[in-house]
Amino acid sequence: MTTPSDLSAVKALVFDVFGTVVDWRTSLITDFMWWGKQRGISADWTALVDGWRGLYVASMDDVRKHPERGYVMLDDLHRRSLEQLVEKFAIKGLAEADLDYLTKGWHRLHPWPDSVAGLMRLKSKFVISPLSNGNVALLTNMAKFAGLPWDLIMSAELFEHYKPDPETYLGAAKLLCLEPGEVMMVAAHNGDLAAAQKNGLKTAFVARPTEYGPLQKVDFEATGNWDIVAKDFGGIADKLGC
To answer: What are phi and psi of 204, to 5 degrees?
Structure first.
C-alpha cells in the first residue's frame, strides 16, 4: 500500500458510476415495480434488471469487435438489450413510450447513502467527474436526478471507447490537462482500477458488496495494491485530507 505522501500530486478524482456512486439494481427494480403497477403490466422485474446488467459487458464488447460499425452509445446498447429481454420474458403490452421509459431508468438511479456527502467533501479540494461507460446525456440526467455535484461530465462517449480501453483513462487525463498520475480513479470494481493503474492513474477502492444483491460474486474487497482502500466515500475524503 502506498503512503498518503505519494498522493500529493493528485488534482482530480474520476469515478466509476454504476455500482460505485449509484445503486443501479435497487433503483431499477423499485422504479419498474412501481411503474408496472401503474401501467398494469406484470413482469419479473428483478429478473429483467439482472438479465439486463448481464448483457452489459457483452454489448460493449460487440462495439469493440466491430469498429467498422462506429461507436454506439450506452443508451442505444441498453435499448437493444431491453428488446431482447422483453422478448425472452414475453412481456406484453409495451408501447414505444414504455420501452423508452424503461431504457431511461438508467438515467434515474439513486446514489448510495454516502455518495453525495462524500462527493461534496472531495469536491472541496479536487476536481470531480464521472468516468463512466454511460453516455453524456445519461450521466447528466442522472446527476440532476440524484443530486451528484460533478464539476464536469466525462463519458466513454467522448472518447468513443468503453472502459477498460486505455483511451478512456488517458483521454480523461488529457481533457483535464493533467498527467495520468495527477488523476485518481475511484471504483468499486477491482478490474476498473487495474486498468486505470496500468495507464498510470492513481487508484481508490470502495467496496459495494450489495451492488448485485444475492448475485454478487466479486469485488467484496480490494484485490490489488490500490493507493486508497476505504469503506465509503467519506473514508476516501478522510485519507485525502478533505
So the answer is: -140, 130
Tens of pLDDT along 145-185? 999 999 999 999 999 999 999 999 999 999 999 999 999 99
d(CA 86, CA 37): 17
Location of C-alpha cell 429483467: 48
Identity of the residue numbered 66: H
C-alpha to C-alpha distance for 55 and 58, rounded to whole angstroms? 5
pTM for this one? 0.93
C-alpha cell at position 18 = 454504476
Other residues' Cβ atoms within 10 Å of the Cβ of residue 209:
10
CB-CB contact of 151 with 123 (8 Å): yes
Whole-angstrom distance, CA of residue 179 vs CA of residue 124: 21
For residue 65, which amino acid is it? K
Q: At what angle do helices 74-88 and 56-65 cross, to 10 degrees?
A: 120
Quote the CA–CA distance of 93 and 17 in Å, as a whole number. Answer: 32
Cβ atoms 141, 105 nearer than 8 A: no
Pair 206, 220: CB distance under 8 Å:
no
Residues 6+ apart with CB under 8 A from 148: 21, 111, 115, 116, 119, 130, 142
Q: What distances in angstroms separate CA 58 from CA 45, 64, 149, one per listed residue?
A: 21, 10, 31
Nearest to 18 by CA among 118, 105, 92: 105
∠ CA 149-153-154, nearest 5°, is 135
